[in-house]
Design goal:
The complex is a heterodimer of chains A (about 250) and B (about 210). Chain A is an alpha+beta fold. Chain A has one domain. Helices cover about 40% and strands about 20% of the residues of chain A. Chain A is built from six helices and eight strands, in the order ααββαββββαββαα. Chain B is mainly α and about 210 residues long. Chain B has one domain. In chain B, about 65% of the residues lie in helices and about 0% in strands. The two termini of chain B are about 35 Å apart. The chains are: A alpha+beta (about 250), B mainly alpha (about 210).
């Protein structure tokens, strides 16, 4: 005797029912949680920017953001100016941190003008210029917030990723990797843009030489490291003209 | 034995040793290779799978009499994917930090063959409570191997455990490194996880000859 659940009509009805139920369940969850999630992501951006300029709750070895209930206040306290650079002209825009770097990159590919956000922060009398950059790792997107001084020397960096391998590429968001960037020069001795290469076997594992435009790579994470190199080279290069105007 | 009968208890204890999903059934190898480079990732993955497999097994078991057999694999996949995505969304809204730690595991959990394997082999034919125990047991057996592999790979590959430098500092040359010890970079690469799993299988089978097939 044929089982009731083996019938084609039952199978099709079950499939339709399942799709409707699961689909609406997911849609309901996604839309009802969306405002909270967007708010979390907005605060995370502010935390990232502040982290890069050294406003964070780091202890000796771990990377910790300032808490979410403090972030709005600290952001308006430390970030003095938010700039959007378009065709070489910088204008102030206090929503610049909401600019989606990914969308801007797509626009640039389509031949449109890419808007470059840049955040200016003041802390202990020092001025920081924080630029968001984005690139590709091994599996998915990687991105970073790099804090620079007016000579394009890195003052702080925060890296993050969407889906790099835990224990390998995912370690770009560990302190030992991010802290290596502090003090590194983006420009060569003659003032031309060199970027920072994530280098294997660079004979400088303690990273004492800050002007070699290199940091030590993570073992087993070559492609993620190359992604970091490429992202710094292509995205931070776009900011060079602006930094030249600071010198004049 | 009150809540858990002797037969039910075996559902939990068997997968820990003599019917271990990784070393005996050879399921879930892909994630065991991918994420065991450090101990913390292994633990996170073990806990996530424990959660998903425990709940998923119950859901599938409750639905076992109404699932059409022709599309049962698709139904299982939909159940596990929906479960994982809903949990991920809820975490994103209410435990954002935690969700960022887990986000990379989401894809790996859905495709973990242990989950599909237990749905197919156990939950479709058993009652919810037994299915729950079976899910917990298999996830624990899986997690146990993951943690063992993660322990050795992090210790020998990076000289750390959960990020703590237990063997000294390789760059400053303190501790064991002062004696000329070097980290084995090979341990960080996936093939070495396979070799560690192989060694565990070897030890397990040499202790229990009944597991050796002809």
């Amino acid at each position: 005797m044929e089982n009731r659940t083996d019938k084609n009509s039952y199978t099709i009805l079950f499939a339709i029912g399942m799709v409707l139920i699961v689909g609406s369940l997911l849609a309901f969850t996604a839309s009802s949680l969306k405002p909270t999630i967007t708010e979390n992501q907005r605060m995370e951006k502010q935390q990232n920017i502040l982290y890069a300029m050294g406003v964070n709750d780091n202890d000796e070895s771990s990377a910790t953001f300032i808490s979410t209930d403090k972030v709005a206040g600290e952001f308006s306290k430390y970030i003095t100016k938010q700039l959007v650079i378009e065709n070489g002209n910088a204008s102030e825009n206090d929503q610049a941190y909401l600019i989606d770097v990914k969308k801007e990159q797509t626009k640039a590919k389509a031949g449109e003008t890419r808007r470059l956000p840049l955040f200016v922060g003041e802390k202990d009398g020092e001025t920081y210029y924080i630029a968001p950059i984005r690139g590709k790792g091994l599996w998915d997107a990687i991105w970073a917030y790099i804090a620079l001084d007016k000579d394009m020397v890195v003052q702080g960096a925060y890296f993050d990723h969407k889906g790099e391998t835990p224990g390998l590429g995912a370690n770009i968001k560990q302190r030992f990797f991010m802290d290596d960037f502090i003090g590194e020069h983006l420009l060569g001795p003659s003032g031309d843009f060199k970027g920072i290469t994530v280098a294997k076997g660079n004979a400088d594992p303690k990273n004492l030489d800050k002007t070699d435009n290199e940091v030590d790579a993570i073992a087993g994470a070559t492609i993620t490291g190359d992604g970091v190199t490429a992202m710094i080279r292509s995205d931070l290069k776009l900011y060079v003209p602006y930094f030249k105007t600071l010198k004049q | 034995m009150g809540l858990i009968s002797k037969k039910d208890a075996k559902l939990i204890t068997d997968p820990l040793a003599d019917n271990n999903p990784i070393t005996i059934q050879v399921l879930g190898i892909c994630s065991a290779l991918a994420i065991t480079a450090e101990l913390k990732a292994s633990i996170v993955m073990a806990v996530s799978v424990l959660f998903v497999l425990g709940i998923g097994n119950v859901v599938i078991s409750l639905m076992r009499n109404i699932i059409p057999s022709k599309i049962r694999i698709i139904v299982q996949l939909v159940v596990v994917a929906a479960l994982v995505i809903i949990v991920d969304q809820v975490l994103k809204a209410y435990a954002y930090e935690l969700s960022k730690t887990l986000s990379v595991f989401v894809g790996l959990i859905i495709t973990n063959c242990i989950i599909m394997g237990r749905f197919e082999a156990f939950a479709l034919a058993n009652k919810p409570w037994q299915s729950f125990l079976d899910g917990i047991g298999n996830a624990a057996g899986y997690g146990l191997i993951l943690i063992i592999v993660g322990f050795f790979r992090e210790l020998l590959g990076s000289g750390t455990l959960l990020g703590f430098k237990v063997l000294g500092d390789p760059i400053e040359k303190t501790g064991l490194y002062a004696l000329g010890y070097e980290n084995n970079g090979f341990m960080l690469l996936s093939p070495m996880a396979l070799i560690v799993v192989g060694i565990i299988i070897w030890i397990q089978r040499s202790r229990n000859k009944a597991l050796i097939e002809d």
